[in-house]
Amino acid sequence: MNQDAHKQRPLTIHDKDGLRPNMWQNLPLFPERASTIAGHVDALFLFLVAITIFFTLLVAALIVVFAIRYRKDRQPQAQQIHGSMALEITWTVIPLAITMVIFVWGAAIYFMESRPPKDAMEIYAVGKQWMWKFQHVEGPREINTLHVPIDRDVRLIMTSQDVIHDVFVPAFRVKADVLPGRYTSIWFRATKPGRYHLFCAEYCGTQHSGMIGEVVVMDQAEYAAWTQSGADGSLASTGEKYFQHYGCATCHRADMAGRGPNLVGVFGKPQLLEDGRTVSADETYVRESILNPGAKIVGGYKNIMPTFEGQIDEDGLIALVQYVKALGNGTANVPVPVANPDAAPYPVAPKPEPQMAKPDNNTPTQQTAPAAPTKKQGPTAPSGK
Amino acid sequence: MATAATVPEKTNYLNADYGIKSWLLTTDHKRIALLYLASITAFFFLGGFFAMLIRLELLTPAGDLLQADTYNKVFSMHGIIMVFFFLIPSVPAVLGNFLVPMMVGAKDLAFPRINLLSWYIYILGGCITLYAMITGGVDTGWTFYTPFSTTFSNTNVVLAAVGVFINGFSSIFTGLNFIVTIHRMRAPGLTWNRLPLFLWSNYAAAVIMVLGTPVVAITLLLVAFERLFHFGIFNAQLGGDPLLFQHLFWFYSHPAVYIMILPGMGVISEVICCFSRKRVFGYDFVALASIGIAVLGFLVWAHHMFVAGISLYAALVFSILTMFVAIPSAIKVFNWTATMYKGSIRLDTPMLYAIGFIGLFTIGGLTGVFLAALGIDVHVTDTYFIVAHFHYVMVGGMVMAYMCGLHFWWPKISGKMYPEFWSKISALLVFIGFNLTFFPQFIVGYLGMPRRYHAYPPEYQVLNVLSTAGASVLAVGYLLPMIYFAWSLKYGPDAGNNPWRAAGLEWQTSSPPPTFNFDETPVVTTEAYNYDEIDNQPQEAEVV
Amino acid sequence: MSHTDPRSLQTHDTGESVELPHSHGPTTKMFIAVWIALLVATGLTVLIASIDLGALSAPIALTIATIKAVLVILFFMEIKYQTKMTMTVLLSAFFFLGLLLCLTMADYISRAWNATF
Amino acid sequence: MDQQHETATMGMWLFLVTEIMFFGGMFCAYLVYRYNYFTAWDVGSQHMEIKWGAINTVVLICSSLTMVLAVHAAKLGNKKMIVFFLFLTILLGAAFLGIKAVEYTNHWNAGEVPGLNWHPSELGNADPRHVAIFFSLYFCMTGMHALHMVIGIGLLTWLLIRAQKGDFTSEYNSPVEMTGLYWHFVDVVWIYLFPLLYLVSHHHHS
Fold first, then answer.
1. pLDDT at residue B129 is higher than 70
2. CB pairs under 8 A between B and C
3. Which one of C110, C113, C114 makes the best mutation probe of the A interface by having the most chain A beta carbons within 10 Å?
4. Burial class (CB in 10 A: 0-12, 13-18, 19+), A269
């Protein structure tokens, strides 16, 4: 098979046989339906298609009938009609009623799409020009391919390293912009094993159309095996290494004696701030507190933490967020403070360290990614190996 | 060229004065309209050229005709030129400029010199944008989204933004002129409820131009500043919020869609009434629907941002408000249809275009409801479904209406008739070509093909080939009128003052009209579209 | 109205042409009074700014600014002596500016609510 | 006279509507970021010198008075007074710009110009990036305002020359009046910029 760049794009579910794609080979007219949400979206879509066909045909039929019936030859003199209040009200109220039904229906689906189930498994995604990086909580990292288990709620927590991107999986009918500087999320529950397109749907520069990949839906057991093999420690454990490396444990001690708040059991709980406000300790809050510690100071503490803006990249932030999250539900080791906290009064910005091992290709499935970037920007944490 | 030798050739706005200077320094709204016509046509074909490049590229999934960067510049320039330099000024600046003063029975617009200035500003903005294009192009898309435009693009973003910024003032001045003219210069007896619907809709569009354009102007200026001086207003890396740019951008750019479509709707109202020989059905509702669209149009912008990261609750608010804006559009469509009922219908070329408009606008409008429905928008936004939808509204709606208006008022503008046969062929080609081009895009969009893709998965190819085939038909449909309009200037038969026996003050003066439009100030005694009275009069208008 | 120039012909039945109240137009004395009021308001707002009013300081500063703006618009810009139309034009600008501010803020304020409910 | 005049007035007011929306875009950005980054706004406004802001406010208010007196003189057809008050207005406008230039220089020297010369001190709890947004908006808003002042001074100079030639009479004075409307509008913008940029939470300092 030809190995031209464009042929390296993931094959669709239809051409597993590896044949050279032929224009006429498959002509889908309706997208694959492979998530629980897809059915809801399609139902409303088809309802709207029906409405559109009805009104378009109604108007078209009336115009054609009038144009024939009242053509000048047959009707030399027009019959003047000024209007009809009854008709005006009819065609104001009926469309209004229909659109209100559509609004409620559409909003219900949107709420469903926007609210991940509480126990959804989480996968982190980082977009950058022009690739997708996915980080599984269990440890595996992948590029442009996303492995997910079937019949489980999966929530993607996404951010961008540069411009706005957008994760779009047509077969799941989900899409959300991926923004620099904050986390957005989507969730889905895949219902059919297979490989599905993953597109960047927000224009992001030169290789926008190359920023595509695939979602591989696997059996749950298969997925579990996949995450185990070749993984080098969970994301939280990577985060723990970052935590130690950056000296976070100096102040954020588990014994309440630190200069900073104890982070055990914090995640997901409301936090009372110094200025009296309360915020929920979610991913965005943890991220902000690392980059801009002064923004929301927890009650009883001083604004002494230095910013880590520009020092930790998005991958590192994700690991730290996951570690704090794991501290929240007690699945991670509590931070161990350095021997003498006073010896290191403030955490200092670390020097760049040797590169962290890139996500390797010995994950169970084949990587379909383009060549991974060789240079990694910014300081990185010690290798997890 | 007068065929009737007994009638001495009348001085009109075209032959009143000769020479380049008499055109470039004119303050006659009709001549300025023709200046706009020429420049807008040039931009239309330039934008069309880019469209053809896009369609050719998408013939194959591999992305092998243009390089990715070139393709991105091509669709960006297509969008910028078509939106800012063709669609927005088209009906207002050409037909509106020509007709608004005549329809109100005035000699000219309220501020003739500002009108000329607006054309020069348009040309200046256009030249800067063209310069940006020639010296490397711009690849941000017409939406200039940050932080791509402020930080990451390596192209002439500042120049292009400044070009669009300057062009905005042309639009502002046109709108300002229309509002003042319609308010203050109406002929005796021309009350608001006797106003032709073309004036109502241009008035509504002018309100949007005046209120909305400055916001996009400052937004683009901030983008330029941010790019030049590395300020941090919209850049997330510097703590800014890219969504703020989107809010400010769409605050104008959504209503801008109504700047495009409203004057077009006005054209359709005029033409449907004339060729049905009837008063418009439900005048008050059609007129108020224009104002309703203009006002509601300012309340719906964030429906462009349902997946962009706005809050759930804001999305709900903007979704329901967007639903409301569908209502006045529906009212218009139904009233136009009802106007044809029991009319005495002739299917001349303008009427063909008008009917085509109603059909395509209905589809365009109804697919807009898909996008207002939150759950569906998530799937179809940023795909070819969107592309198809807004082309149905803008090309199927606005451009059809513009062509309709050109064919309807060409006898008044030029004094000549174009060949009816060829114009009907062209109307037919446009209609067929348009549907062939854009209908497949609804399907490929729902399948999931994202917009602005240079290469795409192979299973989308058949639909893209269909689309490209349609585009070539469409191109022929648009080129034909160029030829026969030009032909008619020299060889076309004299049209007479009122070839359609249409109502409206503009038809009461000679064709082409004299420089100051009317020999004596007209006085209006009836409501608009008094076709019963016109048809019961002896047919003196037929005599040339 | 004895104009022969059709351009300046005004319809009689639109009710827009209001006779200008020439009789009691603006006077120099009034301008000086407004000017003094503006200066006093400026002094006041600077003075208040040095007092800690907590959350109230911004609203108070903006209220004073609005009073000053209204004074300028009514008397210096003579909108008081113009047709109703002029006032309508001006108010429509503030209306649409309000829409821009309110609907944009609706997004920002409610973003924090996403997590709740 | 009145018909033409009313038409011109309406056109001018519509133009001012576009100006309101033009500045409105920046006010919207101001509002959003003030809401998001309250601390930075607090800190940013403390880097403004209230003295200069207040003096400039007074200067502009005075120029509005001289402008209105120039218009008044034009309506009376008093050539000498038109010229005098126009001249005074130009002078006050120039004074405003001069003071603004002093302020800009001070900000530059203090390293308070984002992107170009940015090393501010005493930012307290605030994220420097957010303070940078405050200053970005400060320069955009006051810069746009100053640009309007420059255009206004240009218009006034043109009026001054025409007034000198005796162009304006009690019958024909629309240009003076229209420029007056513009000038007052620019004043109104400043009336809002002053508290928004200088006065917000300035009490910490005093």
1. yes
2. 74
3. C114
4. exposed
Over residues B30-62, the pLDDT tens digits come to 999 999 999 999 999 999 999 999 999 999 998
Full residue range of the structural domain in which residue A135 is found: 121-228
What b/e sequence results for B227-264 when a residue is b if at least 16 CB atoms lie within 10 Å of its CB, and e otherwise?
beebbbbbbbbbbbbbbbbbbbbbbbbbbbbbbbbbbb
Q: Is the pLDDT of residue B388 over 80?
A: yes
B516-520: average pLDDT:
90
Minimal C-alpha gap between C54 and chain D (Å): 8
Cα distance between residue B120 and residue B296, in whole Å: 32
What integer is the mean pLDDT of B215-230? 93
Q: Is B239 helix (H, G, I), strand (E, B) or coil?
A: coil
> Is A274 in the B-facing interface, judged by CB distances under 8 Å?
no
Which of B235, B446, B500, B535 to mutate against chain A (most A CBs within 10 Å)?
B446
Query: Quick check: C7 pLDDT over 90?
Result: no
The reply to whether A110 and A132 lie within a common domain is no
For residue A218, give the CATH number of its domain.
Answer: 2.60.40.420
- Tokens 């403030």, residue? A346
- Within this chain, do residues A209 and A282 fall inside the same structural domain, yes or no? no
pLDDT at B134: 92
- What span, in angstroms and rounded, lies between the C-alpha atoms of B402 and B406? 6
What is the CATH code for B30-530?
A: 1.20.210.10
Task: Name the residue in chain C with its Cα closest to that of D182.
Answer: C77
Q: Which residue carries 């996951």 as its tokens?
A: A322
Give the architecture (CATH level 2) of D2-204.
Answer: Up-down Bundle (1.20)
- Entry pTM: 0.90
Spell out which residues of chain D touch residue A307, defining contact as CB-CB under 8 Å: 127
Confidence (pLDDT) at B540: 52
Nearest CA in chain C to B524: C11
Q: Are A209 and B453 in contact (CB under 8 A)?
A: yes
Total domains in the fold of chain A: 3
User: For a pLDDT cut of 90, what percent of chain C falls above it?
Assistant: 48
Judged by CB atoms closer than 8 Å, whether chains meet at D129 and B226 is answered as no
Q: How far apart are CA B91 and CA B263, in angstroms?
A: 6
B467 by Cβ neighbours in 10 Å (0-12 / 13-18 / 19+) ranks as buried
Q: How many angstroms separate the CA atoms of D94 and D78, rounded?
A: 24
Query: How many CB atoms neighbour CB D36 within 10 A?
Result: 18
**C-alpha–C-alpha distance, residues B480 and B498, integer Å:** 24
pLDDT digits (tens, 9 = 90+) for C24-64: 567 889 999 999 999 999 999 999 888 877 778 888 999 99
Put simply, whether A151 touches D (Cβ < 8 Å) is: no
Query: Between helices B197-229 and B157-184, what is the axis angle to 10°?
Result: 150
Please state the domain extents for chain D.
2-204
**204-233 in chain A: CB under 8 A from chain B:** 204-210, 212
The reply to whether residue D23 touches residue B218, judged by beta carbons under 8 angstroms, is yes
Same domain (yes/no): A268, A205: no
Q: Which residue has the tokens 């520009």?
A: A310
In chain D, residues with a C-beta closer than 8 Å to the C-beta of B211 are 17-18, 21
In a domain, A6, yes or no: no
A313/A324 Cα distance (integer angstroms): 17
CB contacts under 8 A, B 492-521 vs C, are 518, 520-521
- Domain ranges within chain B, ordered by starting residue: 30-530
Q: What percentage of chain A reaches a pLDDT higher than 70?
A: 79
Residue contact A294–D125, C-beta within 8 A: yes
User: In a mutagenesis test of the A interface, which of D127, D130, D133 is the best target, namely the one with the most A β-carbons within 10 Å?
Assistant: D127
Contacts of D127 in chain A (CB under 8 A): 292, 294-295, 307
Question: Which of A202, A228, A254 is where one domain is finished?
Answer: A228
- Quote the minimal CA–CA distance from D78 to chain C in Å: 14
